[in-house]
Specification:
By secondary structure, this protein is an alpha/beta fold. The chain has a domain of 154 residues: Ribosomal protein L4/L1 (Ribosomal Protein L4, Chain: A, 3-Layer(aba) Sandwich). 30% of the residues lie in helices and 12% in strands. It is built from seven helices and six strands; from the N terminus they run ββαααβαβαβαβα. The chain has a six-stranded mixed beta sheet. Helix 2 crosses helix 3 and helix 4 packs across helix 5.
Length: 226
């Protein structure tokens, strides 16, 4: 895949200017699908709140007295009306608060991220803009840019920390997520139909040998259309 490790280069108004060479060690490897699946599964599991809770028969209020005597009534013996088979009783084997976090080795995270980026490059879904030289934030201009680069319904825009004007231009668009290079995750890349980098951020990603992924390792869906 290293021979085809290039992406389309655009100006800030969506006009194509050629191609840009990408780092083949980051954007040109053979995607490892099992690793991507395992890492994304761990990311989604880590995003679960784990707050579901039920009461056992010992926690439900009432039921301290034996409902009827042990023998002589022809009915099954019962010790409490808060047993699971009674209405209003406790729950047997119900959920309780817990953590769903899974430990994922850093090397696996890096491989999964490089695999996802390489897959998007191979599909032609990575776009690079020289720089967003916009003087003021305008959502209409951002929409026109995405139309010009033929972006999909779900777009991940990778901006630098100082790219405040483009950030404010893109943030109100439905189906557009914004992230910094050091916070890219496998889920982000696979969620998006199109990845948009600047020449600075794509070089920053290519120059990072150790992706500084956060502990949560997850970026929430921004409500994009599927």
């Amino acid at each position: 895949m290293a021979d085809t490790c290039t992406a389309a280069l655009f100006t800030s108004d969506g006009t194509r200017e050629g191609e840009v060479r990408l780092n083949p060690e980051i954007f040109g490897i053979e995607p490892n699908r099992p690793v991507m699946h395992q890492v994304v599964t761990a990311q989604l599991a880590g995003a679960r709140s784990g707050t579901a809770s039920t009461k056992t028969r010992g926690e439900v209020r009432g039921g301290g007295r034996k409902p009827w005597r042990q023998k002589g009534l022809g009915r099954a013996r019962q010790g409490s009306i808060r047993a699971p088979h009674f209405v209003g009783g406790g729950v047997a084997f119900g959920p309780h608060p817990r953590s769903y976090a899974q430990r994922t080795p850093k090397k696996m995270k890096r491989l999964a991220l490089r695999s996802a980026l390489s897959a998007r490059v191979a599909e032609g879904n990575v776009k690079v803009v020289q720089t967003f030289d916009w003087q003021e934030p305008k959502t209409k201009r951002a929409r026109a840019f995405l139309d010009g680069v033929d972006a999909g319904h779900k777009v991940l825009v990778v901006l630098g920390r100082n790219d405040r004007i483009p950030e404010r231009s893109f943030r109100n668009l439905r189906g557009v997520a914004i992230v910094e290079p050091g916070q890219l995750t496998t889920y982000d890349v696979l969620w998006a139909d199109t990845l948009v980098f600047t020449t600075d951020t794509v070089g920053s990603v290519g120059g990072q040998g150790t992706y500084d992924i956060t502990e949560t390792d997850f970026v929430e869906d921004t409500g994009g259309e599927s």
